[in-house]
Design a protein that fits this description.
This protein is an all-alpha fold. 74% of the residues lie in helices and 2% in strands. Helix 4 (50-73) runs antiparallel to helix 5 and helix 4 (50-73) packs antiparallel against helix 17 (392-420). The two termini are 34 Å apart.
Length: 488
């Protein structure tokens, strides 16, 4: 293991947070270009949608696998490998010159999704106890920050330098971060023993790909189509075989006994609904800002202006990360989760009746983002209160995966609502005002579900690895066995 110098906690937090930020940016940057990609690449609109689907699928598969390998073979090592694959994927997309290379590059970029749970697990090992909550909060907020900033940044880069600049920029940042990690981040001595569960990893990949592909393509293929039914059946059958196999395996891909503990299970279920609620925010806000006024609710802003109107929500997530940190230190993970999800739910309820001006839409977007920042900061704290140090990355990886399943479900449900309730304006079809109102009520419902499930999370347990009243194992220099006082 290469020895690297100790660096200040702020430097470790900054490097790892930038890793999370570049992940969310590279997922978002391509979205504003999707309407132009068929003409640029000479493909159909359905083919162009694979630019998003490919990243989604590989990210879902890579997150639990890379996280498990990080616990076994080294967190810093797997962070570098994931970042390298993502960076090479950006280069492939920029240099390939054709649609197949672009799809391959986007698929490789999906490996970056594992950077966030692995980065949080490194924080647990490296940061002193008084800095951990702040690091967790900031790292957790990067998803929303990058998503909000990616929309206007994409338009600027595309207009000034062409579409390949989106991939050159992420490749450059990825290369710089690899050097910074190599020089400044220590490899954690914490390792889990055993052998990597290859069969379990393959079967889990089949489950995830089948389910997510059916979910993401259901609206275009048809929910009753043979492809969707077949993929769903394949996913369900594989899952039915995978679960008992994992329970019998000595060193499973996913420790289901830990995952089924009430505290862990309820945290993940609440996270699913919180992820669902978070994803609704960006989709509904974009529609409200951009569609024509004749729809009855649209504000008809140009694309660039609408993108700039999304920036405050990302800034709110950044500004509220220290607030989330203080809440974690003072109240613990469970009250913080309940507070964040409640803020999201109340904001969606307000938006049902107050989405008629640009100011109200921007304010609604901002307050949902504030709730998201608070709720997302609590999840790693709740996870790390349950699992031993040797399973930190894999447990956080599972939680990240569950949240992504929530966002994917949100995307599919909204696509169904928008396709079912439409209005025609100038020969073009848009979601109707009833559809937007229904989506707002859906936001209220899933946020409430996150609160109700989160309220059931137990705050005490006996036995296991240490007290369930603390996060065990965020050790900084000179405090290798120090417990961290962030409560569940």
């Amino acid at each position: 293991m290469t020895s690297v110098p100790r660096v200040p906690a702020w430097a470790t937090t900054g490097i790892l947070t930038l890793c999370g930020l570049i992940v969310s940016l590279q997922q978002t940057l391509v979205i504003p270009l999707l309407p132009d990609m068929p003409q640029i690449l000479g493909v159909s609109a359905d083919d162009a949608s694979w630019l998003v689907t490919a990243t989604l699928l590989t990210g879902a598969v890579a997150t639990p696998i890379v996280s498990r390998m990080a616990d076994m073979y080294g967190k810093r090592r797997m962070l570098l490998i994931s970042l390298a694959v993502m960076t090479v994927g950006s280069l492939v997309a920029a240099l390939g010159g054709g649609f197949p290379f672009l799809i391959a590059g986007r698929a490789m970029q999906g490996f970056g999704a594992s950077l966030i749970p692995v980065g949080i697990s490194i924080m647990r090992d490296e940061l002193p106890r008084e800095k951990l909550s702040g690091g967790i909060s900031l790292m957790s907020a990067t998803l929303g920050i990058g998503s909000a900033l990616g929309l206007p940044l994409s338009g600027v880069l595309y207009s000034a330098f062409g579409w390949t600049s989106l991939f050159w920029s992420t490749a450059l940042v990825g290369a710089v971060l690899m050097v910074a990690i190599r020089l400044l981040i220590n490899e954690s001595p914490q390792r889990s023993s055993g052998r990597f569960d290859v069969v379990g990893a393959i079967m889990l990949s089949v489950v995830l790909v089948g389910f997510l592909l059916a979910l993401s393509k259901g609206s275009s293929w048809g929910w009753a189509s043979g492809q969707v039914i077949g993929l769903t059946a394949l996913s369900a059958v594989t899952l039915a075989v995978w679960v008992p196999l994992q329970l019998r395996t000595r060193d499973p891909m996913v420790n289901l006994r830990t995952a089924f503990r009430p505290a862990m299970l309820l945290t993940n279920v609440s996270s699913y609904f919180a992820g669902f609620a978070m994803f609704l925010n960006g989709l509904v806000t974009t529609q409200e800002l951009q569609v024509p006024e004749d729809t009855g609710y649209g504000l008809a802003l140009p694309v660039v202006t609408a993108g700039l109107a999304m920036v405050p929500s990302g800034l709110m997530m950044l500004c509220f990360s220290p607030v989330s940190s203080r809440m974690l230190d003072r109240w613990g993970g469970k009250p913080t989760l309940l507070t964040g999800s409640t803020v999201m739910g109340l904001t969606y309820l307000w938006r049902v009746f107050n989405s008629d001006t640009v100011l109200n839409v921007v304010l609604g977007n901002m307050f949902v983002s504030i709730g998201t920042a608070i709720a997302f900061a609590s999840m790693p704290a709740l996870v790390m209160a349950v699992v031993p140090r040797s399973e930190t990355a894999s447990a956080n990886g599972l939680n990240t995966l569950v949240r992504s399943l929530g966002t994917s479900s949100g995307s599919a449900v909204i696509a169904l609502v928008f396709a079912s309730l439409t209005v025609s304006v100038g020969g073009a079809v848009f979601p109707s005002e009833e559809a937007m109102e229904l989506v707002h009520w859906l936001g209220v419902t899933v946020a409430l579900a996150s609160v109700l499930v989160g309220a059931l999370i137990p705050t005490r347990r006996s036995g296991g690895d240490g007290e369930y009243g603390t996060i065990v194992g965020a050790s900084g220099p000179g405090s290798a066995k120090e417990s961290v006082g962030v409560r569940p």
